[in-house]
Amino acid sequence: MHKIFDSHGHYTDEKFAEDGLALLDRLFDGPVGAILNCSVTYQDACNALKLARRYPGMYVAAGIHPENVEESTPEDLEKLRTMWADPKVVAVGEIGLDYHWDTPRDQQLFYFERQLQIAGELDMPVVIHDREAHGDTWELLKKYRPRGVVHCFSGSVQMAQDILGLGMYIGFTGVVTFSNARRPLEAAAAVPRDRLLLETDCPYMAPVPCRGQRCDSGMISYTAAPLATQKGVSVPELIDICAENAARLFGIKL
Ligand SMILES: [Zn+2]
Asked: What is the CA(39)–ligand 1 centre distance, in A?
């Protein structure tokens, strides 16, 4: 089949406001079989669910992103509960920690920990964002041992092995195509085939040779290429392997 499963996109981002529907029509008519659209706030999750209702292959991760905690309230977590019960919502995400910007860490830790607890209660997989916060992220993952994926992985080989030890998956974006990709590719080498996910993080992180353009799920073959070489398989094979992995993790029938 060789249909792409993009396990991490943001099609509710304003960069898709104008032509997002036409683009998604084209992608689902073409190379893309499934997309997990990740949300960053309660309102964004509402928009993502509305979008997912239009496309049989589109699914939602509903959650509060670490960079959006200041515009969120604990009541949003209660409102999200009805969304997490929806069959189109297959994960709690995007959640985690981002210490790159000045977003207050105590608020980030509150929402991250609370959503890890809820994911455990609901037995749902999580989509984890960890940027320059490996230590605190690892402490909480170790404590709650969620099912799920650490997305756009940027850690060391050792951290990849620790995460795999918890039974989690690891997702790679277009970053593996960048000229300075030695570190993510080293980490990818430590990830067995059945734990690897392919993702875009679109509209961001466009792979080489599309750098500077708005990213979309159709570009994922570029990201698959260096990973396929490393695993000794063809690009279509790698796309299939990662689609099966994503379907297994998120409980989706392809
Ligand atoms: Zn994301």
From this structure: 8
Cβ partners under 8 Å of residue 106, min gap 6: none
Question: How many A from CA of 230 to the centre of ligand 1?
Answer: 25
CATH number at residue 35: 3.20.20.140
Number of domains into which the chain is organized:
1
Rounded CA-CA distance 149/177 in Å is 20
* Domain with 94 in it: 4-250
pLDDT digits (tens, 9 = 90+) for 25-72: 999 999 999 999 999 999 999 999 999 999 999 999 999 999 999 999
Structure confidence at residue 2 (pLDDT): 76
